[in-house]
Amino acid sequence: MQPEPLRSLQDQANPGHTALVVVDVQKDYCAEDGLLAIRSGQDMSPIRAAMPRLNRLIQDARDRGVLVVWVRAATTLRALQPNHRAVRDQGSGLLAVEGSDGASFDEGVLPPLPGDIVVTKRNYDGFHQTPLDTMLRAQEIQTLVMTGFTTNVCVESTARHGYFKGYYIVLASDCSAAPDPTEHESAVRNISRYFGKVATGQEISSAWALVTSTVPTVSEVGTGRLSP
User: Fold this and answer.
1) Which is the catalytic residue, given 154, 174, 175, 197?
2) I want to staple 98 with a disulfide (CB 3.0 to 4.6 A). Which of 74, 78, 145, 208 is the partner?
3) How many of the other CB atoms lie within 10 Å of CB of 225?
């Protein structure tokens, strides 16, 4: 018999079964002198503006015992199928190439810590040919709070795949971004209508606080997952 669905933000984002997924916070996708900015000529200020809010959510997740998962790109031509290469290499090379400085985490975002999960992907989708699903199920995760860059490409691709795998999806709308605000808003609408919930980082933190209000935070009792 199927369990009853979790419907409220508070129930879905319960710290005991939630992971904060941070996607592609890497120099080539975020920095003003990264390859995305150089090649497209796009303004990276929406991404830079989202970083302080993302940092607050990462810290809140750690304080509330929420598992933090980092999904990072490390692209190579050999790892891409021909149809992917037809779209992505375009004769101009790839972003976040494995081993390059552009594939390293951007200094504007809090770095991963021991106990976090770090998953390397070769394409847009954090689940495709990676151990992400196995790692999440080993932690009994039911909900993915999605953040990172860019909202309409790698964040949305990973969120959609997670939805089809049975995870509740919550997009932290102001802790994700794209250089083109219209592309960001399009992804926000898609997720809110068809794949999950959309909330601000503060709304998600407040939901975590309601669940853990009677439980000491991790910063008070040391490291480790909470089980409210």
Assistant:
1) 154
2) 74
3) 14
Q: Does the structure show a pLDDT above 80 at 93? A: no
Given a cut of 80, whether residue 69 has pLDDT beyond it is yes
Is residue 197 part of the annotated active site? The answer reads no
CA distances from 128 to 10, 33, 71, 198, 212 (A): 29, 29, 12, 23, 33
- Cα–Cα distance for residue pair 104/34, rounded to 1 Å: 11
Statement: residue 221 has pLDDT above 80: no
pLDDT tens digits, 160-219: 999 999 999 999 999 999 999 999 999 999 999 999 999 999 999 999 999 876 544 444
Residues 142 and 168: beta-carbon distance below 8 Å? yes
Instruction: Decide if pLDDT at 68 tops 90.
Output: yes
For residue 1, give both structure tokens: 């018999």
Q: What is the DSSP letter of 228?
A: -
Does the annotation count 180 as an active-site position?
no
Is 154 one of the annotated active-site residues of the chain?
yes
Instruction: Using alpha carbons, select from 214, 151, 213, 207 the residue that is nearest to residue 18.
Output: 207
Joined tokens for residue 89: 């290499």
The percentage of the chain sitting over the pLDDT mark of 90, rounded to a whole number, equals 81
Question: How many Å apart are CA 149 and CA 41, to the nearest integer?
Answer: 17
Set 28, 60, 106, 121: catalytic member: 121
Class of domain 9-219: alpha beta
Q: In sequence order, what are the residues at sequence separation of 6 or more whose Cβ sits closer than 8 angstroms to the Cβ of residue 181? A: 46
3-class SS of residue 169: strand
Position 92 scores a pLDDT of 55
